[in-house]
Amino acid sequence: MHLSVSAVSDSAPEAGSESTSAPRRDFIREMVADDVANGHFGRGPATRFPPEPNGFLHMGHAKSICLNFGIAKEFGGTCNLRFDDTNPATEDVRYVEAIQRDVQWLGFEWDGLYYASDYFEQLYDIAESLVLKGKAYVDSQNEEEIRAGRGTVTTAGTPGPYRDRTVQENLDLLRRMRAGEFADGTHVLRAKIDLAHVNMIMRDPLLLRIRHAHHYRRGNDWCIYPLYDFAHGLSDAIEGITRSLCTLEFKDSREIYDWLVKEAGFENPPTQIEFARLELDYTILSKRKLLRLVNEGHVTGWDDPRMPTLAGLRRRGVRPEAIREFCETIGVARKDARVEIAAFEHAVRNDLNMEVPRVLCVLNPLKVVLTNYPEGQVEDLDAPSFPHDVPKTGSRSMPFSRELYVDRDDFMEDPPKKFYRLAPGKEVRLRFGYLITCNEVVKNDAGDVIELRCTYDPATRSGQAPDGRKVQGTIHWVSAAQALSCEVRVYDRLFSQPDPDAVPEGQDFISALNPHSLVVIPDAKIEPSVANDPIGSRYQFERTGYFMSDVESSTPEKLVFNRIVGMRDSWAKEVKKG
Ligand code: ATP
Ligand code: MG
Q1: Does a structural domain hold residue 193?
Q2: Is the CB of 90 under 6 A from ligand 1?
Q3: 287 counts as catalytic
Q4: CATH code at position 175
Q5: Mean per-residue pLDDT for 88-108?
Q6: Which residues bind L-glutamine (predicted)?
Q7: Which domain holds residue 460?
Q8: Residues 476 and 445 placed together within one structural domain of the fold
């Protein structure tokens, strides 16, 4: 299934038409509303966002965050941030810090901040209680034997030789596992359920395994670690969560979730609801794969502006409002669906359109000399910073003089019929200013155009000709002497195909990387009005796209801009052109 958002278009929306809509009622919100109305859990709605601190948060996590925190907010409940940190091998405090920063940046504040690793004692006590009830046993088979004993989807499993150990024997072994007497992999604790269960997960799932490893928070306190299914539902129950929202791939885990919270004796335990994970075209949403991009140097780090991480999007210039609006738009469904990247870009443009001032920046400068403009003269043209349909005010003045820069793309020596920009003998309007006519094309020895000699019409300061003659095209420009040189980093999609995993046999998503995802323009020319704006200011460069000065590398002496998003979906057009 492919989801496209009907509203995807490049035209500016009506002022204020977006973001005032009430939150949608999806199937999860219906359920929570019912919980509240009928007092199902005997407590208010309680959700949690449970990342594993083994990487930075990405757009997929944003969907989960907006859902969990959104529900808490809408229904007057609570939402915890819980680190699901039960795997000592991959977790790090650096990720814990990044995740907290990103959740807050996205606009949410947690009620409780918890760590699954703080529950190790409680989980261990539950493990002992299961053993005492005869509901768990220590298995001493190796991984291979355990897998074989599980059977297959079509055949039942077979009990291993340790399945009927006595309670005393199991308790003794479990305590010694905890005390560190055994090597990794020699024993595991398993739930004693049913080796012929139709749900493979219920065939005596592993609960605890031995890992003599350093944990970033618990140090060397523990040498047994809970498996995901064991830790997850019980952590929810310990925190008093009501609805545990997770993605569809955990559907089969719901039975063990219910079994564990019940066997552990929780009253009114939480229940799990699954929803579709976000898959976005031209994007990878998997921490494991994103980590590879970082480690192999395909990007500059987790916050590379091309990364679909919240840190990357923030650095690029996307506002949290746009991400929240996007999550709202795509909604929550029970079936997996890929979302067109155009839908996200649309949300980004829509948000910035209403917020950021317009400026003129020439990415690919070509000198224009106005031969009839007095040398040494500079006049100031008044330039409003917002178009009529944006309810903001403000303006700046644009210096205008004899020497200007225009964009090379706005000139053609031998133009096709409908080219309404500069060409020999053609007249064009300068944004906020005069009409000019191109009279002469200056070339270097190699035959490249290096300068245009034009005349301006002094009677057209308003942009209109008093004699009523029609001029179709309007182009952007800057005054050469006053313009600031800047670096512009034009970011594009990180992958060159919608599904980066759909690659030929023997290759992986790395081969789908877009080699042109970053084009650096070292010497663009921007109007001087931006000179004293704080680093991190966002703009629309008229006709070009939305940009933000880069918080890491931009300085007052040398401005550096990241392209957040282009003006329209040029990619789709290029693909069509082939
Ligand atoms: P990844 O595969 O990127 O590591 P994950 O699911 O393993 O993702 P977690 O840190 O375990 O990452 O996820 C925290 C929460 O975010 C979980 O509840 C998970 O379901 C949710 N989540 C992760 N990826 C997505 C996604 N693409 N769409 C929606 N929710 C997601
Ligand atoms: Mg995970």
Answers
A1: yes
A2: no
A3: yes
A4: 3.90.800.10
A5: 97
A6: 84, 228
A7: 364-480
A8: yes
